[in-house]
Amino acid sequence: MNKSELNEEEIQLWYKWKGSFHSIFGRVIKEMSDHTGLSEGDYGVLDRLDLLGDGSLRQQELAESMDWDKSRLSHHLTRMEKRKLVMRKPLDTDRGVQVIITPIGKSALDDARPIVSMAIRKHFLDQLTDLDIESITRLAERTKKRSSASSSASTP
Asked: Measured between alpha carbons, how far is 122 from 125 in angstroms, rounded to an integer?
């Protein structure tokens, strides 16, 4: 079989994997959004500011951590600033911008985390056996290693 084409079984496996992820992820985001009013993007920004930057990150670092382009993040941060979830401050040392979580943003994040945790447990973790967890862990580690190796090999 030509490696550049997928057979029917491979296509079906891909769609099942992708559909399962989107379904679970969608339910987690819906529960969070229904209870907190935060969007997926809001939570991603607030979570990264808190975990990666202890409350603040350079806007460029934040964009890279979310795999968003600068324009998308800038527009999203403008909406979040209007809701007083974050603030931006120009850096004195260079042309960069620091994004800072506000007390309102930190409170919203703290309110959202247990809801997200319970939703992940309900819609994903509680459905898994110990063997499932071992298999998913091995698969995630293997695909991450291979993805990292192939992207670093293709980088000049």
From this structure: 6
Q: Which of 95, 101, 99, 102 is nearest to 59 (CA)?
A: 99
d(CA 93, CA 98): 11
Q: Cβ distance 99 to 49 under 8 Å?
A: yes
Cα–chain-centroid distance for residue 103?
22
Give the span between the Cα atoms of 106 and 38, in whole angstroms. 12
- CA–CA separation, 62 and 128 (whole Å): 32
The three-state DSSP-derived secondary structure of the chain is CCCCCCCHHHHHHHHHHHHHHHHHHHHHHHHHHHHHCCCHHHHHHHHHHHHHHCCEEEHHHHHHHHCCCHHHHHHHHHHHHHCCCEEEEECCCCCCEEEEECHHHHHHHHHHHHHHHHHHHHHCHHHCCHHHHHHHHHHHHHHHHHHHHHHHHHCC
Looking at the DSSP bridge assignments, the partners of residue 86 are: 101
Q: For residue range 70-100, what is the model confidence (pLDDT) as tens digits?
A: 999 999 999 999 999 999 999 888 788 999 9
pLDDT above 50: residue 154: no
